[in-house]
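Subject: mismatched residue count in predicted assembly?

I count 586 residues in my input, but I want to confirm that the predicted structure covers every chain. Input:
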Amino acid sequence: MKKNPEDRFLRDLLRGIPAGRDLVVGPGDDCAVVRVPGASEVLLLKTDCIVEDVHFLRSHDPARVGWKALARTISDVAAMGGRPGQALITLFTPSDLPAGYWKKFYSGLNRAATRFEVGIAGGEISRSPGGMAVSIALTGHVAARHLVLRSGGKPGHRLFVTGRLGGSIAGHHLDFVPRVAEARWLVENFRPSAMMDLSDGLGSDLPRLASASKCGFAIDPGQLPIRPGCTRDQALTDGEDYELLFACAPSKERVLRRNWVVMFPDTPLTMIGELNETFRSPRNWPGGWDHFG
Amino acid sequence: MKKNPEDRFLRDLLRGIPAGRDLVVGPGDDCAVVRVPGASEVLLLKTDCIVEDVHFLRSHDPARVGWKALARTISDVAAMGGRPGQALITLFTPSDLPAGYWKKFYSGLNRAATRFEVGIAGGEISRSPGGMAVSIALTGHVAARHLVLRSGGKPGHRLFVTGRLGGSIAGHHLDFVPRVAEARWLVENFRPSAMMDLSDGLGSDLPRLASASKCGFAIDPGQLPIRPGCTRDQALTDGEDYELLFACAPSKERVLRRNWVVMFPDTPLTMIGELNETFRSPRNWPGGWDHFG
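Triage response: the counts match. Full output below for your records.
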């Protein structure tokens, strides 16, 4: 089965690159984690970009594109259990862009910043000879004892997803609400052993979490929380769900489920399967990954 | 006289955007400055991008482009008196890019990271329908008492420039060495009242420092440290010098000059003029700026 080619390309590029003294977690998780001397919390760092005709179209409402641009990075900070901090925004702007585009874009970005208490610390604008692009760097903070990585899962730990999967292209990919509150509640009360956000689809992302945790996994396909109107395949491969995927010790399952419905009655929490010792994806898993491949 | 249109555009975009509780200095200085609860140092944040055919050409040596990409952000951290920390690298890659380009690019970036002790905390690669672009976010650290902004200059303070100005396009713009050591020595021993790095040329950048300090300025054109073979106009407007421009109380001038030549014998330090109370650029200043314009 294939590995994700982008994952491998980045890993190859970064081989031999100095990591720096204070880097706790480097490339490969949702955020980098940096130790700050004297501080009680670790610093989370995330960069993310969206490119015209790859992640969005010029015909999309610029305000929704602005919301999405920032919300993607907030989702990554949430996936480590963190609170978002300060954002740096870089705009690549083609000469034929209608006047007012970026003001509308910022109105949406501003809404996301206000809602999730993100400060806009700075920005840059560059001419783009091609299409539009936006690059955002976001800091975050989390107490070291609440930090959750992708790599802490253990065989037998239950796998959960929030919300519903698939069909994001119909609109969810522009309007999703990052799971900051849910993730904070999880890390403070149930300490998942591994967590990430679903950006490329469960098919690609679950093997990443399992691989980082040195586990395999088994899923009950009948249990997938499929968005109404979508197929199982869409739920696995569409991507841009921005839901949480996490692993949790089986002993916590009962109380977790019971308290979740009290805290987040409008958001489904679904146990979809568990990690195991096979260290590979099940046969015919759509996203690939095989340790021995 | 004209204001810098990019400065104004960014300021308009960011009007009304939430700054966040911990933001000490927001957009408009070389870096943003963020308070970190419990930490003895403040956090510096900088984002910067380079775009093919705007900041570099495909025919340039990719390793030198990689050096430049990271060194630009290091220069901004130095301009606040800081030490660089962790970098996040985003690559926008067109489909026709020769295989191996990014490996060569990273070899140069890696050299800069090693020399200035920058950790590479993460990165991202996105397809680009246009040309290449690179966006880098860099953290930095500086003790609050050593932090120097653009805005602390006072009338009568002497203006100094390191190195020589102009003609960067002949090669300096790809090979410059960020003035980290010089800036650290300055803030620890002479505490400049205002400082920035010269990226757009003294003509544009000096008015920014003066404006932030609510001063005007007077320059002795005969004193400009012009790179051999360049005109005075080139020294003012070529840009990409990546030298330090700083203001310092006149009482410190004599000892500063004497100790500088001992510490940095190969790097000229030139007193080019001083800040004054006019709150505008001198007549015919090439970079513009007039508070009343």
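The CA atoms of residues 82 and 231 of chain A lie 32 Å apart. Marking this ticket as 'not a bug'.
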